[in-house]
Design brief:
Layout (H helix, E strand, L loop, with lengths): L1 H5 L16 H14 L6 E3 L30 H4 L2 H5 L7 E3 L2 H7 L5 H7 L3 E6 L14 E7 L3 H11 L5 E7 L3 E10 L2 E11 L7 H19 L12 H4 L12 H8 L5 E4 L7 H8 L5 E5 L7 E6 L3 H11 L2 E4 L8 E6 L6 E7 L2 E7 L15 H16 L1
Antiparallel strand pairs: 1-11, 2-3, 3-4, 4-7, 5-6, 6-7, 8-9, 9-10, 10-14, 11-12, 12-13, 13-14
Length: 396
């Protein structure tokens, strides 16, 4: 229940984690096949050394170097202080990039980038440890998100999940650690907090834990309440401002997807599901689609195409986290780029395009034997690159 109410869920078959093939091996092999077929001139290139930015091409505006300006006059340390963290966790917590675990999850362009594009603040902290499959819990994490101008979005959430008030808090766990999720609407700001492996040494059950963590959220609420009320932003949605299509057909067609995958299925485009959350609200505000590559009438998929308007800054940040390798794809402008990597959790091949300053991500998975949709005869790396090429030819 916590996951469904906390984050947007995108459904579809994923390859079971197993022995990973390195991105260089997968993508080089696929590109060799594609190149021999005369489909594209893409080749893998190493990351170039840092250099001065090249001049903008006529069709490519200069890339934004930083996220859009925040519309929340508080930073992460204002929302959750070291003292606040000390009330929740036994280990010392460090601020980390929230995009890291979201990228590993492999469910689309990380929500944090949409939240920042919407003028929000997204924060994360960690003790730097991993559980590594052992019985002992080692990893401790905390996240907090604030989305401005969220009164209507929160009202939709309350109605959908039948919340009796403007606050929600619950915990689950045992007598040593617990996971807690809290959220509320304050002064027009939708604030969420997610704490994993909170110390509950003083609790005999999880019930008292909620009472222990509520004051930490209340401190952030009080700081937000001291700000001027969050007002609606003026102007068009980011996607419209960037001149991006508002529907999947503007990026590629079902026929192109079918050919790229080599499947017998009749293809259609699915969406991101009907769950509603702070991240779903931020993504919807972007004014661009999430395109699940699904057979007609099926909730399963071969992957997806996701878009972040004016998201070159976010794509560059993601590359530093994933170690994606550069590709050379026909049709890219001087300031455009393409990178690729294999997601460590899903084994999906990810091709990320930066076109005219916008980030477009293509994800194609290798279906396992239990998939309920027809197999794809083309390797995921080849399919992802073909789909990326089709997108470049249409909107590049």
């Amino acid at each position: 229940m916590m996951d469904a109410m906390a984050r947007t869920t995108r459904t579809g078959p994923r390859a079971r984690p197993g022995a990973l093939v390195t991105v260089v091996t997968v993508v080089v092999a696929a590109l060799a096949v594609v190149a021999l077929a005369g489909c594209t001139s893409a080749v893998v290139k190493p990351h170039p050394a840092a250099s001065s930015p090249s001049p903008a091409s006529p069709h490519s505006p200069a890339r934004p170097a930083t996220p859009p300006d925040s519309r929340v006059a508080l930073g992460c340390s204002d929302l959750l202080s070291s003292a606040d963290l000390g009330h929740l966790f036994t280990d010392r917590m460090q601020a980390v990039n929230p995009a890291g675990p979201q990228l590993d999850a492999g469910s689309g362009i990380p929500a944090t980038y949409y939240e920042q594009t919407a003028g929000g603040v997204d924060c994360a902290w960690s003790n730097g440890k991993a559980n590594n499959g052992s019985a002992a819990i080692a990893a401790m994490t905390a996240t907090m998100t604030v989305l401005p101008n969220a009164t209507a979005d929160w009202a939709k959430y309350r109605a959908k999940y039948h919340l009796p008030s403007n606050r929600q808090a619950f915990c689950s766990g045992d007598t040593s650690t617990a996971a807690c999720f809290l959220q509320s609407l304050v002064n027009g700001y939708w604030v969420t907090a997610d704490y994993e492996n909170v110390d509950v040494k003083l609790a005999s059950s999880t019930s008292p834990v909620v009472g222990a963590v509520k004051p930490v959220l209340a401190a952030a609420e009080a700081r937000l309440a001291s700000l001027p009320p969050s007002e609606p932003s003026a102007g068009a949605a980011p996607g419209a401002s960037a001149g991006l299509p508002a529907n999947c057909a503007g990026y590629l067609t079902p026929a192109e997807v079918k050919k790229a995958l080599g499947t017998t299925a009749t293809m259609a485009f699915g969406g991101s599901g009907d769950n509603w959350s702070v991240s779903a609200a931020a993504e919807q505000r972007s004014g661009v689609p999430f395109c699940s590559l699904s057979p007609a009438g099926s909730e399963d998929s071969y992957g997806y195409v996701a878009v972040l308007p004016a998201g070159a800054w976010a794509a560059a940040d993601a590359v530093t986290l994933t170690g994606a390798k550069r590709l050379a794809v026909t049709g890219l402008g001087t300031d455009d780029s393409a990178t690729a990597y294999v997601n460590p959790t899903t084994n999906a091949v990810i091709v990320d395009l930066v076109l005219n300053g916008n980030w477009i991500e293509v994800d194609v998975v290798k279906l396992d034997a239990t998939a309920a949709i027809p197999a794809a005869s083309v390797a995921p790396a080849t399919s992802a690159i073909r789909i990326a090429r089709d997108i470049v030819s249409r909107i590049g």
